[in-house]
Fold this protein.
Amino acid sequence: MEDECDYLFKAVLIGDSAVGKSNLLSRFARDEFRLDSKPTIGVEFAYRNIKVKDKLIKAQIWDTAGQERFRAITSSYYRGALGAMLVYDITRRPTFENLPKWIEELRHFGDPEIVIVLCGNKSDLACHGRQVDEREGRALAERERIWFMETSALANLNVEEAFLRMITQIH
Ligand code: GTP
Ligand code: MG
């Protein structure tokens, strides 16, 4: 049965508005992408079952608004989360500059053992619109001792890899 899983993991998505959090999640959970997606209001969820070394893991992934005024209460959002995907947009430098703010929030509200994957999203636009070098993302991740990947929800690049990295590192 679908509900017979060995583990239930909660993970959260964070990062500035319009970096692509909701589309990364819909790509991972349902293989869907929308060019015209609307900003998230409050909190949404999606699930996906994943088999890791013979264990069936149910990943419950929470997605909230990047926009402050639409965000749900922060402490309840992070409660029980064992994984976090921190997302910026490689074509908008301010979303990268804001990462320390998100990391501070994560360190404040998140579990001390939380597994963090930093995603530089929209890598499909790298040739024309890149404002953040891949090396900068990697360097930040190394300083913070977190995982790093450039992703594209649109082109379906590294999306599966980024979520699986997060999920398989949780234990
Ligand atoms: P909030 O809910 O406001 O926090 O935004 P969000 O981070 O959930 O962003 P969302 O997924 O709604 O995407 C914002 C816009 O970026 C939409 O127009 C998406 O189609 C677009 N987008 C998301 N991911 C990608 C990507 O990988 N490449 C490109 N080119 N566009 C993307
Ligand atoms: Mg959203």
Q: What stands out?
A: The radius of gyration is 15 Å. The longest strand covers residues 43-52. The chain has a mean pLDDT of 95.
